[in-house]
């Protein structure tokens, strides 16, 4: 990588991959209740989430890598949310927006899941009822920090190791013959 002065800079592949990923997160807006209104504010022009490269909300799980669960989640809805999460390609991240998504909030009743971390791996929790759009922006920045600290290349090489087809003993014998 060359600098403007004609010299060069060094970096790691992890740093470049994480820089690109952290600045191009595509949120899946899982608006389940009143917190979704604040999530819409976060996505609107006033708070300008485009500064962080995340203005492209995606309603297809195949195109999203950041699920924002905004609002309380019923047990019936939890199956659908989990299925959409499973359809998102990795690497992916999850934000629980508001007291209800994080803990069930005021809904201490049999029909509401007492925190979406009962069925989803949550990366960042946002307190408040409802949290303001600035808090959602802060959570996005926390996710970016988390991505920048990841060892992306090493992790993905490890994930791919299970896909390598190794010869069976019989094939080894045939190769050796
Ligand atoms: S935290 Fe408050 S605003 Fe958000 S879903 Fe619960 S009751 Fe609604």
TrEMBL record:
Q: What is this protein called?
A: NADH-quinone oxidoreductase subunit B
Enzymatic reactions: a quinone + NADH + 5 H(+)(in) = a quinol + NAD(+) + 4 H(+)(out)
Q: How does it assemble?
A: NDH-1 is composed of 14 different subunits. Subunits NuoB, C, D, E, F, and G constitute the peripheral sector of the complex.
Q: What does this protein do?
A: NDH-1 shuttles electrons from NADH, via FMN and iron-sulfur (Fe-S) centers, to quinones in the respiratory chain. The immediate electron acceptor for the enzyme in this species is believed to be ubiquinone. Couples the redox reaction to proton translocation (for every two electrons transferred, four hydrogen ions are translocated across the cytoplasmic membrane), and thus conserves the redox energy in a proton gradient.
| Molecular function via GO | 4 iron, 4 sulfur cluster binding; iron ion binding; NADH dehydrogenase (quinone) (non-electrogenic) activity; NADH dehydrogenase (ubiquinone) activity; quinone binding
Enzyme Commission number(s): 7.1.1.-
Superkingdom assignment: Bacteria
What topology does it adopt in the membrane? Peripheral membrane protein
Q: Check the record and name the InterPro entries matching this protein.
A: NADH_UbQ_OxRdtase-like_20kDa (IPR006137), NADH_UQ_OxRdtase_20Kd_su (IPR006138)
Supply the Pfam families for this chain.
Oxidored_q6
Q: Which residues form the NADH:ubiquinone oxidoreductase-like 20kDa subunit domain?
A: 34-142
Is Transferase one of the keywords UniProt gives this record?
no
**Binding site residues for [4Fe-4S] cluster:** 34-35, 100, 129
> Keywords, A to Z?
4Fe-4S, Cell membrane, Iron, Iron-sulfur, Membrane, Metal-binding, NAD, Quinone, Translocase, Transport, Ubiquinone
SUPFAM superfamilies, per the entry:
HydA/Nqo6-like
Give the protein family: Belongs to the complex I 20 kDa subunit family.
Which prosthetic group or cofactor does it need? Answer: [4Fe-4S] cluster
**Cellular component, GO annotation:** plasma membrane; respiratory chain complex I
What binding details are noted for the cofactor? Binds 1 [4Fe-4S] cluster.
Q: From which organism does this entry originate?
A: Rubricoccus marinus
